[in-house]
Amino acid sequence: MSRWAVVTGCLVLALAGCTTSDKATDQVAPPTTPPSKPAATPSGSTYTLVPRVKTTPTPAKFRYLAGDLLLALPTVYGTHTLETSLYIYPPGPDPTRRPDPLAVWKVEPAICRDVIRYSGVPGIPGDFIAPTTPSAVAKDSLGQGIGNEQPFVSANVVELAGALGDRLLDQRLPTPPECAHILIDGKDRASVVERSLPGFGARSRYIVRTYPVGTQTYTERTLQYRTATYVVLVRLDAFANPEASFLAFAAKTRDGLKTLG
After folding, report:
1. How many helices (H) and strands (E) does the chain have?
2. Residue 149 and residue 98: Cα distance in Å, rounded?
3. pTM for the model
4. Residue 38: which of 46, 29, 50 has the closest Cα?
5. What pLDDT, in 10s, does the model give residues 131-155?
């Protein structure tokens, strides 16, 4: 079996954050380790199990306070006041597995089923991050969903300098080009496309996933990028999901975090 296979973990972005007091000190960023090499995306293959990392080494020093990261994030999205949490990595020991949103349909190419289900990550995102690493999230539900698809918006940031930031980005495998047009029961009704976004730090990855939910189309927009000291993940999942609104929220997130220095 190839490395692109079914994972046992969830990609619902389990952001179970801790609200305990911030113990980090305002010091220099921790030394980095070599990034993991992203895997290839062979055509027609399926996800391979990637075991959860067992240890989360703790860097000796951190540059930011988790509370400072939180204060730099947006507080609202439109009319929605965002809820916040600190220390969101690593995810809990038993994250809920995301149900396959395309379970009732035939999907071609077959690999694209798992690319949508697991958002491109054949494992547990951020499982290698030490629990004391400064991180924060601002998120909120965007109203009534359908079945397992519950619209939401979120912006999270975690201090990961250099190669550690690359390691988090590289947990999300490259989007297979054949997923730009996905046949659902023989009809072109889904897609996953990826590109970079100028102005959003090093190695920005903007990924748009669309697929049917009943008679409607659900869109998941994800932007992930890193700077020299932190990694940002912005996500908007909704039935009504215009790109302009997402990009405006992403820019607001980026500009707020720039105040950290």
Report:
1. 4, 11
2. 10
3. 0.81
4. 50
5. 999 999 999 999 887 878 889 999 9
CB burial string 93-125: b at 16+ within 10 A, e below: eebeebebbbeebebebebbbbbbbbbbbbbbb
* Cα 145 to Cα 151: distance, rounded to the nearest angstrom: 6
Domains of the chain: 66-259 (3.40.1000)
Residues in the chain where the model's pLDDT stays below 70: 1-46
In this predicted structure, what is the pLDDT of residue 195?
96
Angstrom distance (rounded) from CA 82 to CA 137: 9
199: left (phi over 0), alpha (psi -120 to 50) or beta: left
- Report CA-CA distances (Å) from 247 to 4, 69, 70, 74, 166: 30, 20, 20, 13, 22
Whether the CB-CB separation of 120 and 47 falls below 8 Å is answered with no
- Please report, for residues 42, 145, 147, 257, the alpha-carbon distance to residue 141 in angstroms, rounded to integers and kept in the order given: 35, 9, 14, 22
